Amino acid sequence: MTGATVAHDGPAEATGGGRSTKAAVATMYRLTAGHRSAVALATVLTLVGSALGLAQPLVAKDVVDATGRGQVVWPLLVLLGVLFAVEAATGAAGRYLLERMGEGVVRQLRHGLVGRLLRLEMREYGRHRGADLVSRVTTDTTVLREVVSQALVDLVTGSLVAAGAIILMAWLDLLLLLLVAATVAAAAVVVASLLTGIRCASEHMQDSVGAIAADLERALGSLPMVRVHRAEEREAAGIGARVDAAYGAGVRTAKLASVMSSAVELAVQGSFLIVLVVGGLRVGGHSGSLGDLVAFLLYASYLVLPLSSVFRAVGLVQRGMGAYQRIDEALRLAVEPTAPRTARGRAPAARPTGPAVRRAHPALALHDVHFAYDARRPVLRGVSLAVPHRRYVALVGRSGAGKSTVFALVARFYEPDAGTVLFDGRPATELSREACRRRIAIVDQNAHVVHGTLRDNIAYAMPDATEADVRRVIERAGLEEVVDRLPGGLSAVIGERGSTLSGGERQRVALARALLARPALLLLDEPTSHLDAINEAALTTVMKDIAQECALLVIAHRLSTVQHADHIVVLQDGRTAAAGRHEELLAGSSLYRELAASQMLRPGGRPETAAGGARTAGTCRRSGSAARDAGPHGPSAGPP
């Protein structure tokens, strides 16, 4: 993406950090990189058309003078018509080239922005609202299209045409030209005083529009919560305040622009009246010809368009800089590095690979990992664990212990502040993020489902998957009933955020999607949070089967889900508090005993029967019996 990369690689001052019109024009010009030939051709065509337009008053002068002398004028009229037609044709061709160039620049910027926003460091998404970032791809680039497709060439051609008209006007009558120049200079002073205000108001308006999009997206994304809590009016009022702010900024921009336009119009009309009155008096006094006056008046009227286009282009460039500032900010946000990172910044040394090497090391290991989203509040304070190949490891602990953060580090959404994450014995920093993520699949607690067909969602990681593979994971995830229920089966459109599915169904869709990728390590975050007791028991059996194919790391609050895991790691306040099998932890970990007691679990996974706990006990009994019927799969496995 030529234009966008040029725009954001330089220092801030070179990319529009200054507020001068010269700096703004230079920035807008850099955006046309890769389209310079089209800009040059369009400029030439526009100048040719303008030159033909400048020639028309001279022909009109000859027509007037020839008529006064009684000469034949039809050849001059034919010439005037030809000049007019050719001017229109060249102007139309030049305008088409400019519009196409503007669309090309916007396409480049949008490609660059989309690619950048999809690869930002995860921390950046916490600092910027998603819908506001989206508005930079849509609204702000649209503002820039008008600038690069019109304003830049208008500045060049308008200035040159105005200069040509002024030269011819000086040749016809220098005194009248000086009177016109005085009125135009007064308008220029007014325009210059308004440019900074127009740019500031434009920036505020673009920011407000982005805030509207962000607030509205938040409200629509949480619509059930909004309606249950009767917050429609409150949300409408909050978004309305954003709308009012955008309105205020837009009105200020319009006010300044209208003052600028009025100043230009008054200058043009005033100069025209001055020429008409003074020139008429001079013709009446026989100090000038009628033809000269007609030609001068035509040039004065022709001067209106180039001068208006120049003043309009200057204001448009300043408005465009408000949009460009936001685009440039997005293009400068930090993205995830693609290459592996080593301590010395060199490429990692080659290591032997293969099944034998992988079996010698766990699929995943964390050694004394520390991490904090905010340096003042550490989340992990020395976590160590291992997930051997084809083993089922569970991660439990109170809310806020750091379980989901472990998953975020394994997926390399973030990098640990200290300690090491290893895949098959290799430090994650010696591997690219793509290589790490190719090894894993995640079923998130939120079970992300996107708008599209059911098959699109299941085959998201492998769009070219065969029907047999898709059917295999549908059966494994227990989605047969969902496929049969939906009209169209796998071709059914499941709506925005999976609105046509229940929470448990969305979770099973996410599980099928993860299994289709055949990962070496499967991460399940609260896989039973949306399931009833019967489906929980069924999924418990499925997880034991999945562990025969790949390494399995499961986060769970329900101990009934993971009590038959090969190994259970207990986190407390960001530290590894205990590890072992269910019975061992009941005997040796007070925290685990407390968690088990709160869920009425006894040794062996049998629930306590107590008043008020019948539903929980029934849930644990069914899942526990299902897991025991499946039997243990291999010996207990713990950290190496």
From TrEMBL:
Gene3D superfamilies: ABC transporter type 1, transmembrane domain (1.20.1560.10), P-loop containing nucleotide triphosphate hydrolases (3.40.50.300). Keywords: ATP-binding, Cell membrane, Membrane, Nucleotide-binding, Transmembrane, Transmembrane helix, Transport. Pfam families: ABC_membrane (PF00664), ABC_tran (PF00005). It is found in: Cell membrane. Residues 601-640 are annotated as: Disordered. Residues 602-622 have a biased composition (Low complexity). The keyword Disulfide bond does not apply. GO terms for molecular function: ABC-type oligopeptide transporter activity; ATP binding; ATP hydrolysis activity. SUPFAM superfamilies: ABC transporter transmembrane region, P-loop containing nucleoside triphosphate hydrolases. The keyword Nucleotidyltransferase does not apply. Residues 364-598 form the ABC transporter domain. GO terms for cellular component: plasma membrane. Belongs to the ABC transporter superfamily. Lipid exporter (TC 3.A.1.106) family. This is ABC transporter ATP-binding protein. It comes from Streptomyces actinomycinicus.
